[in-house]
Design brief:
Blueprint lengths: L16 H21 L3 H21 L5
Length: 66
């Protein structure tokens, strides 16, 4: 069953691009651990790539510190 998103909430759907990318990175890490625990090596690898991409998005979208 799909949930309707109203643009707010703890899933980060209403946050900034950086907040959403950070949330995806966190969730990807958790899912990767679960996949590895159950010997799903390819899935764990893909989830790790998703995490790395999300972390890169966080770094490139974050405002530069002065």
């Amino acid at each position: 069953m799909e949930r309707a998103h109203d643009g707010s909430g703890p899933d980060g759907a209403g946050g900034s691009r950086v907040a959403v990318a950070a949330h995806i990175a966190s969730q990807s890490e958790d899912l990767k651990r679960l996949a590895r625990k159950h010997q799903l090596a390819t899935l764990a690898y893909l989830l790790d790539m998703a995490r790395l991409e999300a972390e890169t998005a966080c770094r490139t979208q974050a405002p530069a510190e002065t």
